[in-house]
Amino acid sequence: MDRPALAEFLRSRRDALRPEDVGLATGSRRRVPGLRRDEVASLTGMSTDYYVRLEQARGPHPSEQMLAALARALRLSYDERDYLYRLADLNAPARSSLDTHVVPALARVLDRLDDTPALILSSLGETLLQNRLSKALLGDHSRYAGPARSSVYRWFTDPTERESYPAADRARQSQAQVANLRAAYAAAGQQSRAGVLVRQLQKQSAEFAEIWRTHVVGTRFGDHKTLVHPQVGHIELDCQVMFNEDQSQALLVLTAAPRSEAADKLALLAVLGQQQFTTSAPTTSS
Q1: CB 209 within 8 A of CB 201
Q2: How far apart are CA 221 and CA 253, in angstroms?
Q3: Which of 32, 161, 222, 255 has the fewest Cβ atoms surrounding its Cβ within 10 A?
Q4: Are 188 and 197 in contact (CB under 8 A)?
Q5: Could you tell me which CATH class the domain 104-277 is placed in?
Q6: What is the pLDDT of residues 84-121, one digit of tens each?
Q7: 133 near 270, Cβ under 8 Å?
Q8: Which homologous superfamily does the CATH classification assign to the domain defined by 3-87?
Q9: How far apart are CA 193 and CA 98, in angstroms?
Q10: What is the CA radius of gyration of the chain?
Q11: Common-topology check for domains 3-87 and 104-277
Q12: CB of 137 within 8 A of CB of 163?
């Protein structure tokens, strides 16, 4: 591990960003033009002390998970991400249709969406980035680990996942979840992470296995949907999607009609923030 080079690279990437580049408020009393160390730490979910030690070339060897978080927080390109891994003496993840490194172009769009819920998903339904309103509406998906990072897995194994949808709409959502996963499975193959997820769900969910046998396939995100929130109730939203070039990642934007009841509820959520989730225990699965 080349600690001095890693420290220099992290500093250079941090200095190259501005708060507005990552969806943060600029403020009027900033001592540095780039991001502060504590802002990078917050974006990655690590402690400020841990990140400071990395920049001072005296930190511990970062894990692959930590490097992935740094690459997302610093909005690194694929080449920059691979370089970061090499500096840490680790093999960079293979670039494939199931790569979870956030496409920089999608991240830049999300960074500019602060008044409506938005999130970036992988083709397996893994939330890669969320903005503040998305977390207030849907919960902070970073609390999930293992197979539970996939919304498809949670839909068929965790009954609480379905509480966000009206009962009358859940069968349609089950079909859509399986159809999206089959599209990813067809593109990546049986031995991919998509294949592993399919085999896990076939064992754990009779409903999934039954729908899988019908060979329903297709990527569907754009929609008019009703979500159920524990504090503000039913919210009718339009869901629009933007894909990256190979359609392996999708930026979902949820909007409400102007001056509608749903718009008022989103405004309320912007004030309430994530209070409804602060007492929830983290959900993990392996």
Answers
A1: yes
A2: 10
A3: 32
A4: no
A5: alpha beta
A6: 989 999 988 776 667 778 888 898 899 889 889 999 99
A7: yes
A8: lambda repressor-like DNA-binding domains (1.10.260.40)
A9: 8
A10: 20
A11: no
A12: no
Q: Residue 284, Cβ neighbours under 10 Å: how many? A: 12
| Predicted confidence band of residue 173 (pLDDT cuts 50, 70, 90) | very high
pTM: 0.71
Average pLDDT, the chain: 86
**Residue 121 near residue 252, CB atoms below 8 Å:** yes
What confidence category does residue 147 fall into, taking pLDDT thresholds of 50, 70 and 90?
very high
Q: From the centroid of its chain, how far is CA 251?
A: 10
What pLDDT was estimated at residue 27?
Answer: 65
Question: At which residue do the structure tokens 């923030």 appear?
Answer: 273
Residue 142 DSSP symbol: G
Dihedrals phi, psi of 255, to nearest 5 degrees: -125, 155
How far apart (Å, rounded) are the C-alpha atoms in residues 203 and 191?
A: 17
If one counts every other C-beta atom within 10 angstroms of the C-beta of residue 63, the result is 11
Compute the Cα dihedral for 192, 193, 195, 200 and give only its sign: positive
Q: What is the DSSP string of 112-128?
A: T--SS-EEEEETT-BEE
Q: Judge whether 258 and 242 are in contact, CB under 8 Å.
A: no
